[in-house]
Amino acid sequence: MAQGKMKANVPVMESGDVLRAAIKARGMMQMDLADRLGVLQSSISGNINRKRMGLEVFGTMLDAMNYDVAVVDRETGEVMWKVALKEDR
Prior knowledge:
By secondary structure, this protein is an alpha+beta fold. 43% of the residues lie in helices and 11% in strands.
């Protein structure tokens, strides 16, 4: 039930690093993401700098930037499933 294939050599990153890269890739600042989510910029910063972040928070932040969260088979690089966020259900 594969949905697609990831690009080769996709970097493995901590959740905060992924969010920093996603914000930068969208040409945004933390304040822009905070505005989209209706939270304070300090909340975004706190989540990004946290050692561990829950999947719901991580997914919500990525969703606000029009990214999906997916489960990828490590051996094949194949995207197996898209993670449904509350809005997707």
